Amino acid sequence: MRQEITRVPSIHKLHKLLGIEPPAHPLISVIDLTKAHPIQSNFNSKMVFSFYAVMLKQGENCKMKYGRQPFDFEEGTIFYISPDQSLTVPLERIEREHNGWGLYFHPDLLKGSPLNEKIKKYDYFQYNSDESLHISSEEKNHLEMALRNIQKEYNQNLDHFSTELIITNLELFLNYSKRAYSRQFITRKSFNTHVVTDFQEQLDAYFSEEKHLSLGMPTVQYLAEQLNYSAEYLGELMKNETGKGALEYIHEHIVNLAKNLLLNSSDSIGQIAYGLGFEHLSHFAKMFKKNTGMSASEFRSDHLM
Q: The HTH araC/xylS-type domain covers which part of the protein (predicted)?
């Protein structure tokens, strides 16, 4: 039976569904999830919010696996959800299992501020649920300090400084989250090395199995799906491990294939480009020059002299 989806258009509606008093601010709220008492007549375990959600789950029942291995930071697990993503963690378990909090803010809060554009750079809002953030005690303290400042601002009489200060502390919270994710990539370095190897193997197989001839150029999205990661998380992982983003890594691999063909075949540059899956020669020429600093014909002539 298909599961019904409940859309939650506002933070006020969320408060109502969780059985708590109306929010002090219409566009942002920090909720103590231990005080939530979901109203079963309005409750559905699968929801889609029209706003951003950040939720901390902690305690014995939050022990879980991170990808393929158990995580080692048990101060809590944080999930980051962007607007219109479905919430897969059953909210009806909050009352009996969760000892945590939730931060919810509507995109309208950010309009007119630099954060309105900058928030797109916080890739963790696009990560899969098993790519969540596992925090230390110190990281938790930093995040909760920013949350307390947000609460303090919206709980007092609002003035023309309020929105700016709320957004400033929200950005601080997001930056602390980014730092914690960066630490997580570093502490999992030995595991991540295997992911880079798997990524390279998938890339090699893509061309050896000639998938590029039917599917075109390999994409980060495609390779991420083969490795059971989100494209955003895989991109950040590759950047931390290799110094290159996933797309840059793919392009470099393609250019290396092209170099080999330029030096070891008599095919024209056009034949090489189309043989690698490019639909347009100009796209190949642009990628090659960007990666090598010279055109394909210059590379061939310089190395065959």
A: 201-302
List C-alpha distances in Å: 124 to 53, 121, 132, 269: 12, 9, 8, 40
CA–centroid distance for 291 within its chain: 27
In the block, tokens 């390279």 appear at 200
> Taking the domain 190-303, which CATH number applies?
1.10.10.60
Class of domain 6-187: mainly beta
CA quadruple 277, 282, 287, 291: dihedral sign: positive
**Of 194, 191, 178, 177, nearest to 70 (Cα)?**
191
From first to last of its 305 residues, the chain has per-residue pLDDT tens of 456 778 899 999 999 988 899 999 999 999 998 888 776 555 556 778 999 999 888 765 444 333 344 444 456 889 899 998 877 545 445 445 557 899 999 999 999 999 999 999 998 898 877 778 888 889 999 999 999 999 999 999 888 899 999 999 999 999 999 999 988 887 777 667 788 889 999 999 999 999 998 898 999 999 999 998 889 889 888 988 888 899 999 999 999 999 999 999 889 999 999 999 998 999 999 999 999 999 999 999 887 66
Q: What ranges do the domains of the chain cover?
A: 6-187, 190-303
50: three-class secondary structure by DSSP: coil
Give the end-to-end CA distance of the chain in Å, rounded to a whole number: 68
d(CA 192, CA 235): 12
Say what the pTM is: 0.67
Q: Which residues, 6 or more positions from 272, have their beta carbon under 8 angstroms from its beta carbon? A: 258, 261, 262, 265, 284, 296
For every residue of 278-289, DSSP letters joined together read: -S-HHHHHHHHH
Burial of 258 (0-12, 13-18, 19+ CB in 10 A): buried
| Nearest residue to 54 via CA among 25, 85, 75, 26 | 85
**Cross-strand pairs, 6:** 47
Q: Which residues pair with 8 in a beta bridge?
A: 49
